[in-house]
From TrEMBL:
Gene3D superfamilies: 1.50.10.10. Belongs to the glycosyl hydrolase 47 family. Residues 142-153 have a biased composition (Polar residues). Its EC number is 3.2.1.-. Ca(2+) binds at residue 595. GO terms for cellular component: endoplasmic reticulum; extracellular exosome; Golgi membrane. Its cofactor is Ca(2+). It is found in: Golgi apparatus membrane. Disulfide bonds join 438-470. The chain crosses the membrane at residues 22-42. This is alpha-1,2-Mannosidase. Residues 72-84, 130-141 have a biased composition (Basic and acidic residues).
Length: 621
């Protein structure tokens, strides 16, 4: 999922979101999208291209401190995937390689990874091409990459466009015909505008809004980069048709996004600067890299210098996309090497532990979690298959084998009949499920059609049961919002038994599963559950100047944590908006959402390599 959120944080640090996939993924993903016309979202912009195609050398960037990471882990932050980068004890500036796990819990930082999108007018969403430099009039994007790649690095935008099955924004921008659903969608749009307007009024150019104190939050998890909420919100604003707000955001990116500390040359150069992290005996990348020197190292808190499964295992979509854009196969080669090693080494009971040594290629601890530290690895297996237009048979095989092991070892049924995903520690089950793991209902349902035909209904049922359990974690709280983690032992079912697990930081995973379940089953209860979440967010998280997380979902009188996470704009509100939209708004046939809810296009190689498009004529409208 590139910076998802990390679980477990101190009350005072409840705003941090450890990456979801790396700081670079927020910006690599997002800026690659911006730089190349968002492959269907961004319009031509000479000024924007000048920013990213400048010849200035890229500088190293600090993306967070190791102390911040440790603080999260002390509190049970099992999903370091949001950790974007850290500064070493010697003060080296660095950037985190990938998001540790799905969404980290929180400390006062937020996530930002992923593919960002936007455009000047809704019509532009069907694509506008981007040129290699500001003066180019060609219909191709060219980027240079000097690390063992094709010298012809041209990307044919028009050919790519013809391979879409449907218009990205649908016939009527996903407008539902049902008046009540339309009214609910408009409410979500109003929430986005409210959150955005307050961010703009009180925190413009900062990373996130502190709505109670009405000021901005920068933090050190973004390595000196500013405007995380702006970059993360671009595609949400565009999809919702908030064009004035989108244009303000685009103008800020064009004129004010300070990339001096990270990179000003082509996005491809950033990709190249990340490659030294893969220079290990196994090809498994280390978690942190200094962009200036190319030196990389593992997180200090990671067991025995290990790399994190949800970190090195959540690079695939972005790196394959980068290879497509640059025509440089080295990025795909790097992530395929990771896969090769994972297929070769022994897996305890077919499971993938969270920690792997980049030196020996052996598992360091036998801790398995579908939540923090592991989650997005599994998500990216099935999504890699889908993004390849269902040609990546290896990803498919790995996903269904992993799912079989998960069902055999982790899926449990409570005395009350609730299905949940436990954690596995060297053969001993910990009957706890984190909010981060609630993405798995959506993961299972999007893969239901492509497994063994006789198991299709089983997968649909399993996805529904997991999503039901996560809904129960919401409905059993006083606020009707879910805790960071909930347990199934000591008489507890789907409730948090520890004070440190009771907070809610505007996380999207449960709503994410509602959206996928609605898209693939059209069971109206998922829209009703989504509306329950909207009402709870409005009642308990909306304050005078934005939205804030809360410290205890079971308290009748809520205490706010004073943080409007950027992923609330990027993921939570986007998934709600899609839930109340028709299916042709970013249709799943053409788009795969990365772990930060930024859409990436399905790569139809046969169409791209053939003559003309082979799909629906509506793409040309």
């Amino acid at each position: 999922m590139v910076f998802r959120k990390l679980p477990g944080v101190s009350a005072s640090g409840m705003g941090l979101r450890l990456s979801q996939k790396f700081v670079f993924l927020l910006f690599l993903s997002g800026l690659v999208t911006l730089c190349f016309g968002a492959l269907f979202f961004l319009p031509d912009s000479v000024r924007l291209k000048r920013i990213f195609l400048s010849k200035t050398e890229s500088q190293p960037v600090t993306v967070g401190s190791e102390n911040d990471v440790r603080e999260h882990l002390k509190k049970g932050a099992k999903d370091p995937e949001h950790l974007r980068g850290i500064t070493s004890a010697k003060g080296e500036t660095s950037t985190k390689l990938k998001a540790l796990s799905r969404k980290p819990s929180v400390t006062n930082e937020a996530k930002t990874d992923k593919k960002v999108a936007g455009g000047e007018a809704l019509e532009d969403m069907t694509l506008s091409r981007s040129k290699t430099d500001s003066a180019s009039k060609d219909e191709k994007v060219t980027s240079s990459s000097n690390q063992g790649a094709n010298t012809d690095t041209s990307f044919d935008y028009n050919k790519f466009k013809k391979c879409l099955l449907k218009p990205p924004l649908g016939i009527e921008h996903g407008k539902p015909s049902d008046p009540q659903t339309l009214q609910r969608r408009e409410k979500v749009k109003e929430m986005m505008k409210f959150a955005w307007d307050n961010y703009k009024s009180f925190a413009w150019g900062r990373n996130e809004l502190r709505p109670l104190t009405r000021n901005g939050h920068i933090g050190n998890m973004f390595g000196g980069l500013r405007g995380a909420s702006i970059v993360d919100s671009l595609d949400t604003l565009y999809i919702m048709g908030l064009m004035d707000e989108y244009n303000d955001a685009k103008e800020w990116v064009e004129t004010s996004l300070d990339l001096n500390s990270m990179f000003k040359r082509k996005v491809m150069v950033l990709g190249e600067k990340l490659l030294p992290a893969f220079n290990t005996p196994t090809g498994i990348p280390r978690g942190v890299i200094n962009l200036g020197s190319g030196t990389s190292w593992s997180w200090g808190w990671a067991s025995a210098g290990s790399s994190i499964l949800a970190e090195f295992g959540t690079l695939h979509l972005e790196f394959v996309h980068l290879s497509e854009l640059s025509n440089n196969g080295i990025y795909t080669e790097k992530v395929m090497n990771i896969r090769k090693l994972l297929n070769k080494i022994e897996k305890p009971h077919g499971l993938y532990p969270n920690f792997l040594s980049p030196v020996s290629g052996n598992w360091v601890q036998h801790h398995v979690s579908i939540g923090g530290l592991g989650d997005s690895f599994y998500e990216y297996l099935i999504k890699s298959y889908l993004m390849s237009d269902k040609t990546d048979e290896e990803a498919k095989k790995m996903y269904y084998s992993a799912l079989e092991a998960i069902e055999a070892n982790l899926v449990q049924k409570s005395p009350g009949g609730l299905t949940y995903m436990a954690e596995w520690r060297g053969g001993i089950l910990d009957h706890k499920m984190g909010h981060l793991a609630c993405f798995s209902g959506g993961m299972v349902v999007i893969g239901a059609d492509d497994g063994a035909p006789e198991k299709r209904q089983h997968y649909l049922d399993l996805a529904a049961e997991i999503t039901h359990t996560c809904h129960e974690s919401y409905s059993r709280s006083a606020t009707k919002l879910g805790p960071e983690a909930f347990r199934f032992d000591g008489g507890a079912e789907a409730t948090a038994t520890r004070l440190s697990d009771r907070y809610y930081i505007l996380r999207p995973e449960v709503i994410e599963s509602y959206m996928y379940m609605w898209r693939l089953t059209h069971d109206p209860k998922y829209r009703e559950w989504g509306w329950e979440a909207v009402e709870a967010l409005e009642q308990h998280c909306r304050v005078e100047a934005g939205f804030s997380g809360i410290r205890d979902v079971y308290a009748q009188t809520v205490s706010h944590d004073n943080m409007q996470q950027s992923f609330f704009l990027s993921e939570t509100l986007k998934y709600l908006y899609l839930l109340f939209s028709d299916d042709d708004l970013l249709p799943l046939e053409d788009w795969v959402f990365n772990t930060e809810a930024h859409p990436l296009p399905v790569v139809r190689k046969r169409c791209l390599q053939g003559e003309g498009g082979t799909h629906d004529k509506t793409t040309s409208e």
